[in-house]
Design a protein that fits this description.
The protein has about 625 residues and is mostly helical. Helix content is about 70%, strand content about 0%.
Length: about 625
């Protein structure tokens, strides 16, 4: 192919200037024509434009003739070209649409291929499932089988299923079916756990408790410490239900049944706990961090004892009547039985019974003072004592040493007799359960009551003194003498029967003759009580029995205590004293039947009614006329 060299190109540019087209350079005919034109001479070059014009005109003429002769062909060619152009346009638009749809079509094809693969895999899985239908059905029925075993009480089989499900979970924990089975299984296991704990909340004996705790340990849901807590909580819940079923209308019946239930069932629970759990051999290694499991049991026992003492205190405050001694014996026996398991709580009983006994005595003495005040408001001095004294039958001396007889002279003065009867009734109630620790409080309470009686006597004297006749003044002096010389010393002796000086001296660690130096413990201060009545009482010789009555009574009681046979125990003396029938006095006061004391089998605290003397409940009755006179 001929090309235009650089020189020719420069010549052409200079000749044609701006009319030289760039595409001429690549045209081989143009380059050949230039080579040929370069070889012409001048003349031929001058004729070349004319020749070219002629040649052009000739070509145009031929073209017009060709077009004229073949115009139909040109027309058809134009139509065909137009139709071809239109068809090519439609083809181009269709291809464009096809190209637009090809990506989505390809995506759908790929999705189809994937779905076909999934369908194939599912078909293969269904075929495999059909082949393993029996084994799969057994696995799927595990939750139902577990629920059936739990509801029917087949805990051994349920635990075997539990072990199998745990192995399945370890191997195939990612499978949804296995996860569903494990979830349903855990629900049945929770039901089994509730049923086992419910068995512990019922009246279960030791074999049942052992079996239940064995199942709980195999379930491995609690640590050893948690298992102990759950056992104690469940058994405690059952014990509370038993105690809640006891009727509480009668405080004495409620507390006695509570004592019996606690003593029997609580001891059984402790026995079951010690048989099931061992505090000496911990299950965890010594080097690990362990819980003080013995403290769990100790804390639970302390809590149960505290709840019992709370119930006891509540029922004692509600009042148990005159059966405090029987209740004390039962409680002490309860405490003694618990001493075998290291939970002796008898030391906590004394303050409670001491408080109740003191409150009861204080209430009775207050009522006696109030009754004395009412009697004094209605009392009139009448000249009957000498006549009445002759009608009193002689009292046969008691054959039992140490028996106290109330002063018969008080029958001449009904207010004093009624007051003494009420105080003696309070003494007899106190005698059934009288801790030695009450000596000072009882003495102070009785001394305060006697001081109030003294004030009431003075009030009566101030109100009636201006109207006294000589005979009435003499009778009033006799009234005061009976109070000072008969009733007060007699009450002092009764106090020393309740609280023997020898026993007080032993507790205080001093000789019996020096007990009075530690205050009025078990002995009324006679001088303090009679001080307001000194201006009324006649002066008698000697005065020492009245002034030093505390020392004399202490020596007397001590001497009587030394006469006791050494072989008798305080409990037997207490029982003999309580069983001794005593005389009573009737002066506006009903007769009270003598009570007996049931010695406690486990009594450890010194009880003051273990004495050498028995306290009379009331003074002996007189004849009917005397009763009517005193009642008036």
């Amino acid at each position: 192919m001929a090309t235009v060299d650089v020189e020719d190109e420069s010549i052409l540019v200079s000749i044609f200037k701006d009319s030289f087209s760039e595409n001429w350079r690549e045209n081989p005919d143009f380059a050949a024509y230039l080579s040929e034109l370069s070889s012409y001479g001048v003349e031929k070059l001058n004729r070349e434009p004319e020749r070219l014009s002629e040649e052009r005109a000739h070509i145009l003429q031929q073209t017009r003739e060709l077009a004229f002769s073949n115009y139909k062909t040109f027309i058809r060619t134009a139509h065909c070209t137009k139709q071809i152009y239109r068809d090519f346009g439609r083809v181009e638009s269709s291809l464009a649409k096809l190209l637009d749809k090809l990506p989505s079509f390809g995506e759908k094809c790929r999705g189809f291929v994937k779905e076909a693969e999934d369908i194939g895999a599912s078909r293969r899985m269904n075929s495999l499932t059909l082949n393993r239908h029996t084994e799969i059905l057994e696995i799927l029925e595990i939750p139902q089988l577990m629920d059936t075993c739990v509801r029917n009480g087949y805990y051994e089989e349920a635990l075997e299923l539990a072990a199998y499900v745990k192995r399945l979970e370890k191997k195939h924990s990612s499978l949804p079916v296995i996860q569903g089975i494990v979830h349903e299984f855990r629900q049945s296991a929770q039901l089994m756990l509730n049923q086992l704990l419910q068995q512990l909340r019922s009246n279960s004996q030791l074999p049942v408790c052992l079996r239940v705790i064995g199942y709980l340990r195999r379930m491995d849901v609690f640590t050893e410490a948690e298992l102990r807590v759950k056992f104690l909580q469940a058994r405690g819940s059952w014990l509370r239900s038993v105690l809640a079923a006891i009727p509480d209308e009668d405080p004495y019946f409620h507390i006695t049944k509570t004592i019996e239930a606690c003593r029997v069932h609580l001891f059984d629970i402790i026995t079951q706990y010690r048989a099931i759990f061992s505090d000496e051999d911990p299950l965890l290694p010594p080097g690990g961090q362990t819980v003080n499991e013995s403290a769990i049991f100790h804390g639970w026992v302390v809590q149960q004892v505290a709840q019992f003492l709370e119930t006891l205190d509540r029922d004692l405050k509600r009042g148990v009547g005159s059966r405090l001694d029987s209740l004390l014996g039962q409680c002490m026996y309860f405490g003694l039985s618990f001493s075998r398991v290291g939970a002796d709580f008898r030391g906590q009983l004394a303050p409670m019974f001491q408080r109740v006994a003191m409150n009861t005595f204080h209430k009775a003495v207050k009522e006696a003072v109030d009754k004395f005040q009412e009697d004094m408001n209605l009392y009139t001095l009448i000249s009957l004592p000498s006549m009445l004294g002759n009608t009193i039958p002689p009292v046969a001396p008691s054959t039992q040493p140490g028996t106290l007889q109330p002063p018969m002279a008080l029958l001449d003065f009904p207010p004093l007799a009624c007051f003494l009867n009420n105080v003696l009734t309070a003494f007899n109630d106190l005698r059934l359960c009288c801790p030695i620790g009450l000596a000072q409080e009882v003495t102070r309470c009785l001394e305060d009551a006697l001081l109030k009686v003294t004030k009431l006597i003075l009030v009566f004297h101030r109100a009636e003194e201006s109207a006294f006749s000589s005979r009435e003044r003499e009778l009033f002096v006799q009234f005061c003498c009976a109070f000072a010389e008969d009733m007060v010393p007699f009450l002092n002796r009764c106090l020393q029967v309740l609280f023997p000086p020898a026993q007080l001296a032993q507790i205080l660690g001093v000789p019996p003759a020096q007990v009075h130096k530690y205050g009025n413990i078990g002995c009324i201060s006679v001088s303090t009580v009679l001080e307001p009545l000194k201006f009324v009482l006649p002066k008698r010789e000697p005065m020492s029995p009245v002034v030093d009555l505390a020392v004399d009574l202490t020596s007397l009681t001590t001497a009587e205590a030394e006469l006791l046979p050494p072989s008798k125990s305080p409990s037997s003396e207490k029982a003999e004293a309580a069983q001794e029938p005593v005389p009573t006095l009737h002066a506006q006061q009903p007769q009270v039947a003598p009570s007996t004391v049931e010695p406690s089998p486990n009594q450890t605290e010194p009880i003051a009614n273990e004495t050498q003397k028995s306290i009379p409940e009331e003074l002996p009755p007189t004849n009917t006329n005397a009763d009517k006179t005193l009642s008036g």
